[in-house]
Amino acid sequence: MPLIVVPTSQLFRMRVAALLFTCVAFSAAAHGAYLPITVMADWCIFCWAFSFACTLLVLLVELFGLQARVPVSWSNFPITVACYAALLCLSASIIFPVIMYLSATILWPVFQFNKSYGRNDDPETITASVITAINLLLYVADLVYSATLVFVSG
């Protein structure tokens, strides 16, 4: 019976954290956040779902050691996934708070206490906004770390 050894590298832990934060942002937005503009909300949901699915694929391929059986260049695929996920999470972290506050990750204090902008303090909205910003940072770190491993040391 084959034994699966879970990698404990920083990159693996960073990808697991990104996967978890993407799932939390998606769940919080899908199950309770008030999203008045459906096209923008659909884009944010797509960003999180696509990032989650691709990151899960990368983690599973690396966990089961299937890099040689994948019909793409594996050294470039995780970097491409991290780059697209970082861009999509950047997009979602800007668009989602714009729907709510204009940009919760940058201008949160300005709009948090101003009643003329129609405050929306429900926990799901706050959670989705904050987790998306953290997720963006994790994917950017994944991109930088992966690119360094491939292009600098290899």
Automatic annotation (TrEMBL):
Name used for this protein in its record: Myeloid-associated differentiation marker-like
Record membrane topology: Multi-pass membrane protein
Residue ranges occupied by any MARVEL domain in the UniProt entry: 6-151
Residue stretches spanning the membrane: 40-61, 81-108, 128-152
Compartment(s): Membrane
Single GO cellular component term: membrane
Organism whose genome encodes this protein: Pundamilia nyererei
Family indicated by similarity: Belongs to the MAL family.
Entry superkingdom: Eukaryota
Keywords: Membrane, Repeat, Transmembrane, Transmembrane helix
Primary localization: membrane
